[in-house]
Structure formats: structure tokens, C-alpha cells
């Protein structure tokens, strides 16, 4: 099981509350104070770098020969919590929006509710803190699992059936009370690969199948009781769907990209993983299931190029 310790959470209570929101929220949404204004804070130079980055990612996908990819990105700077990737979706070559747009659950801050959203790669990648390194992980599936996922992802009725009405950044993976962005994705994977019936409670069926298949969500250890209490006042974070035993231990089980990637690796032998990171104008590409080095440093065998 993936476990993340809350180092640095012994700050003032207010800082702790904000850190909790940052820890548990994926980059698509959290409190409007912290996340909904983030894209507008990018400098022109930063947006230009991210646009060039998205073009390189699209070229990589074009040349892969695949029809879809599970794509996960960094968002907020969560390295101090040992969380590199925060938000995942499905990039589809034949997405009706634009080629390789990412189908995902997206929380609309202005409407305060989740949507099913097809977002072009530039938009998907631009939600990055000014000056931070950008990390991206791409999973390319074997033909059978890829075809099943493409069929499910492009089934609008199914995709919307699995969209929960109430968003929670720390949604418990085995409850239908709330849902976060990554949870929608893993429930779609369950329907695609489990060939589950379309009738009935689709989310409950997906969660039952995930449990049967041994899906293990990430564990976020917040360490302190007051951090659990903070869920009562931090927007878009909730306790009501989590087991009492987990709350008593000051931890949350949450679907994050690390858990999803581990599950995909278990279910679809032969899945290829490509990691890409951007540091300034330096682009590093790494193939394999071992994680890229910290600070976007290239390892032996990595490809390094400069974006112009």
C-alpha cells in the first residue's frame, strides 16, 4: 500500500489546515482560495514553456501507435508530502474535442460541482505552480485492455453514469457518498476491464469489483488529530465517508495516481510507462517503472532535450 507521511505539518493551525487541503486535493480542484485562481497566475513565459511541453507530449503520443493513454500529472507542489502526481485522466487519440484531449472528472469552481470534461493537452498541463518542475506519467496499455478502455471512455452514457454528484478531494474509494477525479477514472477502469453490466448502481459495481481485484488506494497519513478535525472546515474535504478506524489513526485512504498506476500494472501486464518532466526549458524523458530522480535530474538512458 502506498503511504505518505505528513512531514512539516507541525506548523501553525492555519498553515496546517491549508496544507491538508493541498495534500488531499488533486490539482483539478480544491478550495477556490488555493486552486481556482492558479491558472491565471502563470506568466507569459511560463505559459509558453508549458505550451511547448504539451506539443512534445502530443508528438510522443502520436508516435506511440496507441489509441489511448492513462496520463497523470503533477499540479500543486506536494513533494514535501512525497506526492509527485496528483491528477489523472484518459488521453484519447480520437477524442471528439481534439486529438489526445484528456477525458476526466473536473471540478468547476464557479459552479461548485463536478463535470465530465474533455480538455486539450495544453489546458491539462498548464495547471502548474509558477517556477515548479512539471512531472507527467503516461501509461500505454496492451491492445486488449486499451480497446476496452477506449470503448468505455467514449461511452458518454457510462462515463456520466459513473460521475458522482458530490465532490470530495479525499473521497473514500469504497463509498459512493463522494468522488474525486482519480476515483472516477479507476471506476471507469473497473467497468472497462471487468465488463460490468450497464444496469444498476454502476459506481457500487465498480467498487465491488475493485475490492475483489485487490485494488489498494493510497494512504495519506496526516499524523495529527487536529488535521482530521480540519476536514470540518476546509472546503471540499470530508470525513463522513471514511471508516472510523482510519480517522482514529489520523489517515485517509484516497485514490491518487500512484495507486491507479500500481493497479494498472497488476491488471495489464506489459503496460509501458513513460515519464516526462520539465525543468525550466529542459525536457527529460524516462522509460520504465522506476520513478524519475528528484529535481528532474536525468538518469542513465534518459533522453534530454531543450525546448526552444
Structure, briefly:
Helix 5 packs across helix 7 and helix 7 packs across helix 8. With 308 residues, this protein is an alpha+beta fold. Helix content is 34%, strand content 20%.
Walk me through this protein's architecture.
- It holds the Pfam family DUF2145.
- InterPro entries: UCP028477.
- Keywords: Signal.
- This is DUF2145 domain-containing protein.
- By secondary structure, the chain is an alpha+beta fold.
- The protein has one domain (3-306).
- The chain has eleven helices and eleven strands.
- It has an eight-stranded antiparallel beta sheet. Strands 1-7-8 form a three-stranded mixed beta sheet.
Q: How many beta strands in the DSSP annotation?
A: 11
Give the structural class: alpha+beta
**Number of DSSP helical runs:** 11
Q: Roughly how much helix do the residues carry, as a percent range? A: 25-40%
How much beta, percentage-wise? 15-25%
Form type: globular
Radius of gyration: 18 Å
Mean pLDDT: 85
- How far apart the termini lie comes to 41 Å
Order of helices and strands: EHHHEEEEHEHHHHEHHEHEEE
Describe the largest sheet: 8 strands, antiparallel
Taken together, the total number of domains comes to: 1
Low-pLDDT regions? 1-17, 25-35
Q: Which strand order does the major sheet show?
A: 5-4-3-2-6-9-10-11
Amino acid at each position: 500500500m502506498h503511504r505518505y507521511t505528513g512531514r512539516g505539518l507541525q506548523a501553525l493551525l492555519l498553515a496546517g489546515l491549508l496544507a491538508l487541503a493541498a495534500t488531499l486535493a488533486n490539482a483539478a480542484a480544491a478550495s477556490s482560495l488555493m486552486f481556482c485562481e492558479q491558472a491565471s497566475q502563470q506568466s507569459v513565459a511560463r505559459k509558453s514553456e508549458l505550451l511547448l511541453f504539451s506539443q512534445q507530449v502530443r508528438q510522443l503520443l502520436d508516435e506511440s501507435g496507441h489509441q489511448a493513454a492513462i496520463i497523470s500529472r503533477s499540479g500543486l507542489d506536494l513533494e514535501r508530502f512525497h506526492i509527485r502526481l496528483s491528477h489523472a485522466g484518459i488521453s484519447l487519440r480520437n477524442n471528439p474535442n481534439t486529438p489526445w484531449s484528456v477525458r476526466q472528472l473536473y471540478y468547476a469552481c464557479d459552479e461548485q460541482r463536478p463535470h465530465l470534461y474533455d480538455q486539450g493537452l495544453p489546458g491539462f498541463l498548464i495547471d502548474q505552480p509558477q517556477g515548479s518542475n512539471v512531472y507527467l506519467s503516461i501509461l500505454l496499455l496492451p491492445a486488449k485492455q486499451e480497446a476496452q478502455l477506449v470503448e468505455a471512455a467514449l461511452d458518454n452514457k457510462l462515463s456520466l453514469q459513473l460521475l458522482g454528484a458530490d465532490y470530495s478531494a479525499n473521497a473514500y474509494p469504497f463509498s459512493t457518498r463522494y468522488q474525486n477525479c482519480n476515483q472516477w477514472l479507476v471506476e471507469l477502469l473497473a467497468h472497462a476491464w471487468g465488463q460490468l453490466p450497464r444496469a444498476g448502481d454502476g459506481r457500487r459495481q465498480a467498487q465491488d469489483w475493485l475490492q475483489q481485484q485487490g485494488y489498494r488506494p493510497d494512504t495519506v497519513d496526516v499524523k495529527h488529530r487536529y488535521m482530521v478535525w480540519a476536514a470540518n472546515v476546509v472546503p471540499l474535504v470530508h470525513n463522513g465517508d471514511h471508516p472510523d478506524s482510519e480517522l482514529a489513526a489520523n489517515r485517509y485512504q484516497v485514490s491518487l495516481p500512484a495507486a491507479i498506476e500500481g493497479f494498472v500494472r497488476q491488471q495489464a501486464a506489459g503496460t509501458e510507462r513513460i515519464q516526462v518532466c520539465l525543468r525550466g526549458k529542459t525536457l527529460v524523458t524516462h522509460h520504465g517503472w522506476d520513478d524519475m530522480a528528484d529535481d528532474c535530474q536525468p538518469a542513465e538512458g534518459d533522453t534530454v532535450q531543450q525546448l526552444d
